[in-house]
Amino acid sequence: MKKWISVCLTLMLALALAAPAAAADRTAAPARPSGVSVQVNGKNVTFPNASPAVINGRTMVPMRAVLETLGAEVDYDGETKTVQAKLGDVSLTHVIGTDAIQTASGEKLTMDTTSYVKNGSTLVPLRFFSQALGYEVYWDEGARTAVVIDKAAAVAKIDEGFTILNDLQAKQRQTLEGDLAIAMDFSGEAKLLDSINGDKALPFSMKLSVIYGAEAMNAEGTMDLSALAALMEEEDPETAKAMEPLLKDLSFKMIYGESMWVQMPALAPILGLTEADAWLKTGDVPALSAMGMNAGSSTIGGTLYALAEMADAEVPVNIYEDLTKAAQLLTSVMGDKTFTKTGEDYSWKLDEAKTAQLAEALGASAVDFPFTMEMTIKADGSSTFSMALSMDELTMSLSGASNQTESTVKGQFQIKNVCDVTFQGSSKISASDKAPVTAPPADAAVIDLDDYAAAPLTGADLGVIGGADGPTAILTASKLAVELLPAIAIAAYSYMALIPMIQPPLMKLLTTKEARQVKMSQLRKVSQTEKIIFPIAVTIFVVLLIPDTAPLIGMLMLGNLFRECGVTERLSDTAQNALINIVTIPLGLSVGFKATASSFLTFQTLSIIALGLTAFLLSTAGGLILGDVMYVLTKGKVNPLIGSAGVSAVPMAARVAQNVGQKENPSNFLLMHAMGPNVAGVIGSACAAGFMIKVFGG
User: Fold this and answer.
1) Which of 64, 269, 308, 581 has its CA 20 to 30 A from that of 129?
2) What is the pLDDT of residue 3?
């Protein structure tokens, strides 16, 4: 099981290009370099005489070393001080000391600065010369490195190994040109299995229409998610009744151009909007063409490059390496050599045997991969695919077909004695008689979300609410967005108080009745020595790992040590009672004083509270899902309910897990088991806060 998960994650990370890993590499990088480096196609350039330098915001580099690394032929005429560079069909001429470049066709290009001579080397603006020769240029501030990549060559090299998939893509696009119209229809039924009270069928559906252009995309659709209200009915019938009409007909519109606009009337009352048809506008977004997602042609290589460019936008020194690794892995999985030709058709299959070979190539050992995927590509440009998964009590199947204008898919997802989900969908693509709009009508009500950003939001100051830890949320907000501290603090403490209402519905949704009834074995007795070593070891390890967590972890573990060491009873009693009360009162008052009506009763505050709830729900769901995984891996020895306690609300979250578990099985006692993930949630929240303060707080 472990190896199977490892291989799956490796494949996913390859296709997503491991953005978080790249960020982690940067975080762990050595001290910021003082000089300037140049990287060309993943390799650092050596400069024997003069070094590169940043002059007035421009990276100036010794011309010959860079041009020759790029693959250009360089000639120099000492008498006229003229340099000629030729790369393929591109030829450039430049006179040292000027700002002009002459092309072979006679076109004159003007640089934004002049070249100059230093230590016998001619320094020119890297970006201008490289782009004139057709290269992509990036600047990595953290590494102080100018990155130059021959995108055309890199994409072409990757595409050499994907001629079959690229040919399929080309055939399925060749019948349509210009703007496209796409109509999608998706529906299904989730059947909750209950042998005592009878099965419950919950239908769901979505219809979507899209107009797709070269630089813009419009989407409009409706969703029927009333099944979610039905799931809430047993736990909270009043809320379910109120939510049912809202979820029954959830309509939305989206415009993607230079910015993104979203219109969803159902959100208006939740966000406090006075106009239900108002458009919510985000900031600048990447162009469709830059992401390889426009209606024009694209290849596997081009798409991988666009993904690498987005994933490593903050660390462009990693683009070429990540692109190369992802391409190598994807080639080994779906490259031309993995297909079998029969007549004019091609077939592809990934099963346990092939996965074992891939795992061996990755350095893994035994692989348990009960997953089969197959695809057939026909000469006319149509294709079919299927996949199946069967493990323990879970089975899943998916199949579909596509041609130049239509696609269909159907599938089934089953958990033994729990649920049986079936779904089907179809899409049709045709030439559109109108182009996508790039913005809402001039007279439309538009709410620019940037206008509500009183402080620069990183998402970290909101995401920390998901830990349900008031002190952690306050410290993070004070470092990253002090203007939002009242709203963030109130949201964090509110969700801590509402844990008994928020968590139980998620517990029932994400766990099975059988799993909730599991009785866990008695925990071993913890010695006094272990109790004393624990806070000391945690403090040393965590603070050395993430120094910014010291205020949170240090105080938490100091109180723990007071209580457990057995020789500071007076200090322990004071810390638990008098001192905490003295601190809490001024803390609450100071936060309250900042929550004035003019700054608190705003759309931004309501958005923070809504997003904070989302973060908290995701934290709880993540813990429950991991609990489900542990339940499966231990063959039913771990009750997944304790996963919900993996937030920082101690001991309330553990008590909720205990109460829900005891309702399912009156003889169950999960409190002390749940305290483990509960305390881990406190430590994890502090670590996450310290990391985000370090990364986003400067």
Assistant:
1) 308
2) 32
